[in-house]
């Protein structure tokens, strides 16, 4: 089987086929997964119509507040649209997670603006940092604002509705030629954190850079992410949520569902389809179909969490 | 050859001599486009200054472990470093570590 990009267990999938599937996922599909087989339940509007039961939480990612280049001259504006979409949801989510790159250049004003908009959702927000959140000279703004009660550069865990959440940091102390990095200290903490948890506890692990190898040529993976998956293998239901790559990608491996969220700021190209992973300029009319949020529904007793990706428009 | 011409030659040689000892320092450039350092490997001489300029819409850094470290360079920002001793200076972008380069100082 192809070792990235895809959930299909069949071997011999052509690259074209993989990309087709990704495009299709990117239009907004409710995924529910039983027994390791993903099913789509219809397009986003139909999914919204069927009001979810159980706990729902949201994922937003890669707000890049302060970004003003051609790919999206107003990243703050599209974040505002994303939060308006959250506020318009028929069922208020329990809380939100933000998978990093809140700011573009870690300026105090960028964090201030992000907070001003995101707080309008009136939800608890659990953050993990992206590499763009650690760019200030003293590397203190992120920690001061979001790091309360966290360990090291900002990792932590919490429980909600019987689900165990771990927020991991894989954007510090990166090594030349390498990928994202968690480090020995964080891995030891995680091992300890998971100790004594019943294997039937659903686990959600979230971090900025994908914990699975999406495309190492562009640095889209985590050097020691395999260690996390090793520790989570024994749990009956594991969901891994990431950002960083500014597009929806999903795969299922055993009991583990991997999912990346769209950015609220600008899209990035599919792996290998452009000279670099930099911001992708699309027609203005198309931009909002490539930005968005993800809503994750957890029903007690269900093996899998259902994930709905909602673009800002179209 | 006239005496004057000969004197001129000696003078010229005398002027060149110190230059050949401390070779003329050069200014060299490395550009960053599409998450790539170009040229990826650059040979320079002791005393030369290299300037990196970021042309991407995404910030980058230039870090050579224990040797030099730029601030975050946003679009069109640049960073310069003057090499005062010989050696191989591997460097990378600390935000996108798959971006690597090398300065060879002779």
Largest interface: A-B, 25 and 22 residues
- What are the secondary-structure elements of chain A, in order, as H or E? HEEHEHEHEHEEHEHEEEHEE
Radius of gyration of chain A: 18 Å
| Strand segment tally of chain B | 9
Topology pattern of chain B, helix = H, strand = E = HEEEEEEEEE
The description of the largest β-sheet of chain B is:
4 strands, mixed
| Largest sheet, strands/sense/barrel of chain A | 7 strands, mixed
**Roughly how many Å apart are the termini of chain A?**
33 Å
The structural class of chain B is alpha/beta
Strands of chain A, count: 13
Poorly predicted spans of chain B: 17-21
Mean pLDDT of chain B: 87
Q: Could you name the CATH homologous superfamily of chain B?
A: Cupredoxins -  blue copper proteins
CATH third-level topology of chain A: Purple Acid Phosphatase, chain A, domain 2
As a percent range, the share of strand residues of chain A is 15-25%
CATH superfamily membership of chain A, which one? Metallo-dependent phosphatases
Report on the structure:
The complex is a heterodimer of chains A (314) and B (106). Chain A has one domain (15-311): Purple Acid Phosphatase, chain A, domain 2. Helices cover 22% and strands 22% of the residues of chain A. Chain A is built from eight helices and 13 strands. Chain A starts with 14 loop residues before the first helix and ends with a strand. Chain B is an alpha/beta fold. Helices cover 18% and strands 39% of the residues of chain B. Chain B is built from one helix and nine strands; from the N terminus they run αβββββββββ. Chain B has a four-stranded mixed sheet, with no helix packed on it. In chain B, a hairpin with a 7-residue loop joins β8 (87-92) and β9 (100-105). The N and C termini of chain B lie far apart (39 Å). Residues 17-21 of chain B have low confidence and may be disordered. At the A-B interface, loops of A face β8 of B.
